[in-house]
Amino acid sequence: MSSNESTDERSAIECPACGKCFLTARGMKSHHLQVHDEAVVGGESRKSER
To answer: Which residues pair with 24 in a beta bridge?
Structure first.
């Protein structure tokens, strides 16, 4: 098991687009914006206005 997979399921924040888990909502939001080019707002994905 890799270190990314060893996160505690009770505290893991999952990316709504790809399912990757993060320890913090901030980390997931940063990932989602950079990788999926979308901002996460209130649990929903929104395409960025770039």
So the answer is: none
- From residue 2, alpha-carbon distances to 12, 22, 29, 33, 38 in Å are 15, 13, 22, 24, 27
Q: Could you tell me the fold of the domain covering 3-47? A: Double Stranded RNA Binding Domain (3.30.160)
| pTM to 2 decimal places | 0.62
Q: What is the pLDDT of residues 5-50, one digit of tens each?
A: 554 556 789 999 999 999 999 999 999 999 999 888 776 666 655 5
To which residue do tokens 């909502």 refer? 25
